[in-house]
């Protein structure tokens, strides 16, 4: 395979809207980023992370040293949880405002980086709060510069304009998408991922798989989103088993991270639809549910529904996982079962029923999918009409194994 002909220690710039430094050793680019902060007179920064990621990955030692060398002051907010909340965003924003932060650095996976993006908006909109941001009460016109130091290979948030947060009291988990929250700089260094636990390695990679499944099949799909989708599936099918069996395999981590990044670019261009719109209610109701696990449990049922209208695309995209598809609409059951079998083989053996959801929850989940702010936009670009009956059927078909 040609991948072995690539020097994974050659740190290159993955150019999209964000300048992303990519490769083994990319964390050293924090020195250049600190120099940029200093020369831009941004000498106070807020750092956003969870209680573990910034330390256990080794990122913190590099970041702190680079900031100190450039006399850049910082404050740290490290209370972000999986499925971050608007309360956490407001708490971090207050710390940043009190300190006078002029930029925000997010260290971690999707949760810390999405929180950092949200805080960067609110630091520029001092009369607003996180609930107003996520309920669409205003459209942000600006944000402080965002630097994303990514520690997982799944979300793609380090190279896109999306962020997600939960409003717990309403059981809402909306998404936002604004150009002002593209990170100015991002760091994708596979070295920061070797400490990822087994399940997080699995779930984050499946997040990327869902990104491209949706981006390749929305009404906004385009040749670019489909091209990236094909390569993402090939890379995940090849390298996820390797990373699961040997967490220290930097080559496997490199290509899973690359798959995650191009999947982020894919859905930044092609958007998302059913799987994310229906997962958000799951982890809004049960905040302890891993986002990638929720997506994995829904994916086979979503593909079964949309395959008849997107058969030619999905047959080609999913060839590495479900080989031999002809692009015939009658293959919907075959591809759905094939994807589910692959997920089980990778180690995702749960369905919604195993996570405590019941038939009696379907109506509530369907209502949340249809009423949570922003999810209507995702559903509006689904390849088939997102009728209540379709949404309910996806949930029902995800309760138990096919």
Automatic annotation (TrEMBL):
Superkingdom per UniProt: Bacteria
MF-aspect GO terms: alcohol dehydrogenase (NAD+) activity; metal ion binding
Pfam families in alphabetical order: ADH_Fe_C, Fe-ADH
InterPro entries (UniProt xref): ADH_Fe/GldA, ADH_Fe_C, ADH_Fe_CS, AdhA-like, Alcohol_dehydrogenase_Fe
Keyword NAD: yes
KW ATP-binding (keyword) present: no
Every Fe-containing alcohol dehydrogenase-like C-terminal domain range: 201-398
Keyword tags: NAD, Oxidoreductase
Domain Alcohol dehydrogenase iron-type/glycerol dehydrogenase GldA: 18-190
Range of residues in the leader sequence: none
PANTHER family xrefs: ALCOHOL DEHYDROGENASE (PTHR11496), ALCOHOL DEHYDROGENASE 4 (PTHR11496:SF102)
Family: Belongs to the iron-containing alcohol dehydrogenase family.
Protein name: Iron-containing alcohol dehydrogenase
């Amino acid at each position: 395979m040609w991948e072995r002909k690539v020097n994974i220690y050659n740190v290159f710039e993955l150019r999209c809207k964000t300048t992303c430094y990519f490769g083994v050793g990319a964390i050293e680019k924090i020195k250049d980023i600190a120099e940029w902060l200093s020369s831009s007179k941004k000498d106070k920064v807020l750092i956003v992370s969870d209680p573990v990621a910034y330390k256990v990955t080794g990122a913190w030692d590099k970041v702190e040293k680079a900031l100190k060398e450039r006399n850049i002051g910082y404050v740290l907010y490290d209370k972000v949880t999986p499925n971050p909340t608007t309360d956490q965003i407001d708490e971090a924003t207050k710390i940043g405002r009190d300190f006078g932060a002029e930029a925000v650095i997010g260290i971690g996976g999707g949760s810390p980086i999405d929180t950092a993006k949200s805080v960067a908006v609110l630091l520029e909109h001092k009369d607003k709060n996180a609930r107003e941001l996520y309920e669409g009460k205003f459209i942000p016109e600006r944000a402080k510069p965002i630097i994303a130091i990514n520690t997982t290979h799944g979300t793609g948030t380090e190279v896109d304009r999306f962020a997600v947060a939960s409003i717990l009291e309403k059981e809402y988990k909306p998404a936002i998408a604004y150009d002002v929250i593209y990170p100015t700089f991002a760091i994708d260094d596979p070295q920061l991922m070797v400490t990822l636990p087994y399940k997080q390695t699995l779930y984050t990679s499946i997040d990327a798989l869902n990104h491209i499944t949706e981006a390749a099949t929305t009404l906004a799909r385009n040749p670019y989103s489909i091209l990236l989708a094909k390569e993402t599936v090939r890379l995940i099918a090849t390298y996820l088993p390797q990373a699961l069996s040997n967490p220290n395999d930097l080559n496997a981590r490199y290509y899973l991270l690359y798959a995650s990044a191009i999947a982020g670019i894919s859905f930044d261009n092609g958007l998302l639809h059913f799987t994310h719109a229906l997962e958000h209610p799951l982890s809004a109701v049960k905040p302890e549910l891993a986002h990638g696990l929720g997506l994995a449990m829904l994916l086979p049922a979503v593909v079964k529904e949309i395959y008849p209208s997107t058969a030619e695309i999905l047959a080609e995209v999913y060839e590495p996982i479900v080989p031999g598809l002809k692009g015939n609409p009658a293959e919907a059951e075959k591809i759905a079962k094939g994807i589910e079998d692959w997920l089980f083989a990778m180690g995702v053996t749960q369905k919604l029923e195993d996570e405590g959801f019941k038939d009696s929850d379907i109506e509530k989940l369907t209502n949340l999918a249809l009423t949570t702010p922003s999810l209507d936009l995702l559903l509006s670009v689904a390849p088939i009409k997102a009728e209540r009956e379709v949404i309910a059927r996806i949930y029902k078909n995800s309760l138990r194994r096919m």
